[in-house]
């Protein structure tokens, strides 16, 4: 394979990312050595880049096998918006269009070609010959590779024909990719594709940004309506078992005022395509669908996936829930579980004259039921199913959340265990607690008062330390000796906490009902919320003009970066995720201008250098002001009797900008604030400044009545600065 570019260069200039995730770089380098690969990576983990980047690093075309037309179109649209020459071949195209694509292949003008398996290696054997003689592929990528396996949850017989690839192209590397494959499926993929010299790359199946819930199905509709009301404006998918169920539920939701539509294989193609397109463009917020919807849908801003009926297996459930939060932002998966669904699915699992396949399907269903009924961490159950170890507590599933008294007490546990160890495991609970509390009692030996653990527990009352020590005993982290006067002993579990960094979660001594509705999965970085919403509107406007889904222009996470780092010059855009060279040229200026206007209107100084990928909030500070002609013009017009709104209209500026101009003169003492802000408003703002400080305009705005503007706040701050 002849290299024409470096992977890191392609990642930055084409896709707009500064670094690879997980083991993407290792996979890419492996392929560039012309070796085969099997990649197991969760949905949203970046599988596509594993073959798209090497495709652009070498001469020739990369042929991608994809199971669905929708997936092909989505991928090609995304690549085209990044300036990559890509196309797909499928049965929906006019013969003249297909011939045009073949001509592009002959002229070596395409870097990626998406095809269905039956077109690549089916009755049309001439296509393989065409590739051999005229296109000369550099790489074959098999997406959704689990479809080739009878053990997979979505077996497709047409995928079996791909076994021909290694026969026809023994020297061309093959990469097989899937988000869901157990050990049997993985083995079958390798055997069916006749891979010989290969390496398996497995990533964690964990999706830390998704919170999992299982709820009782009985009378679920009212709870569903409440949930959707709370998530107004978010995009989501609701899965049902049958076509009729999707129609009924979608109609009920529309009657209740929700922007919803049904999607299933029984609808005519034009209707399916239209509804999918409207959903991708955010014109339909909720799709109520059978599993016919979703494979390969790369819509990155799906905030929730709801299962109104029980999925048939863990693989399908995991893949479907993985359509939420592909942009990495917090999202939810909700499943309504009822015993009636289990009986239905057991009937569906009966495969006539194939007891072996029936047994496979029933076994997978049993594991799905066990997931719904488990009392352990649901994330742990999912990860264990795929052969991955996981802690007992994740804090981001309902079984963990609904134990509000269970919290991370690792430091508390380490203090207790350290005390036990320092006194050579020769004392009981009371002595250890007194030692931690720094008791002055004579019963504490003098040499023990010199220990580092003496007095390190003064922050908690004696009863609390006693409680946590007993908790450690009941959880097996400590044990009591069998002597007449029992003493505390360490166990293997306690050694893992002391020396291997294992976390400890314990029950609080007092039962407290949590008011937190959902866990904090990770600390959401600070961002300008109003700017973020405006950037979304700008993106949607562009998407409608170009007739593509909004997330293909830029993802929500890219907009979040814009609203966090606040870039002011074109060079900064290259440091924002998702902005490659092509997108900077095509879309950069409108987004940059919106950020600049926002910073000007809100007096936000963002001179701090962008340092990606660290998510550091740029500091909002009062800019270093100087008098300018434009400020002086606003002052003169105001003194001439014009209102702020009238000045803004005459000068074609926003009222916020005019208020910023006048703030400069208020701070200098050249303009009296009394004529600008009513006294009652000013009193409220001054009270908020005393409470929250003056560093963050956004925090002040969010804690004041809606009618108080950023301009009002800036003027009040300016007056305070002048008085100081």
TrEMBL record:
Keyword Chaperone: no
Cofactor(s) listed in the protein's UniProt record: Mg(2+); Zn(2+)
Domain Helicase ATP-binding span(s) in chain numbering: 28-199
Gene3D superfamilies in the record: HRDC domain (1.10.150.80), P-loop containing nucleotide triphosphate hydrolases (3.40.50.300), Winged helix-like DNA-binding domain superfamily/Winged helix DNA-binding domain (1.10.10.10)
One of the record's GO molecular function terms: DNA binding
Domain HRDC residues, every copy: 525-605
Cross-referenced CDD domains: DEXHc_RecQ (cd17920), SF2_C_RecQ (cd18794)
UniProtKB keywords: ATP-binding, DNA damage, DNA recombination, DNA repair, DNA-binding, Helicase, Hydrolase, Isomerase, Metal-binding, Nucleotide-binding, Zinc
Gene Ontology BP terms: DNA recombination; DNA repair; DNA replication; SOS response
GO CC annotation, single: cytoplasm
UniProt enzyme class: isomerase
Entry EC no(s): 5.6.2.4
Top-level taxon of origin: Bacteria
InterPro entries hit by this protein: DEAD/DEAH_box_helicase_dom (IPR011545), DNA_helicase_ATP-dep_RecQ (IPR004589), DNA_helicase_ATP-dep_RecQ_bac (IPR006293), Helicase_ATP-bd (IPR014001), Helicase_C-like (IPR001650), Helicase_HTH (IPR029491), HRDC-like_sf (IPR010997), HRDC_dom (IPR002121)
Family, as annotated: Belongs to the helicase family. RecQ subfamily.
Name of the molecule in the record: DNA helicase RecQ
Organism: Sediminibacterium goheungense
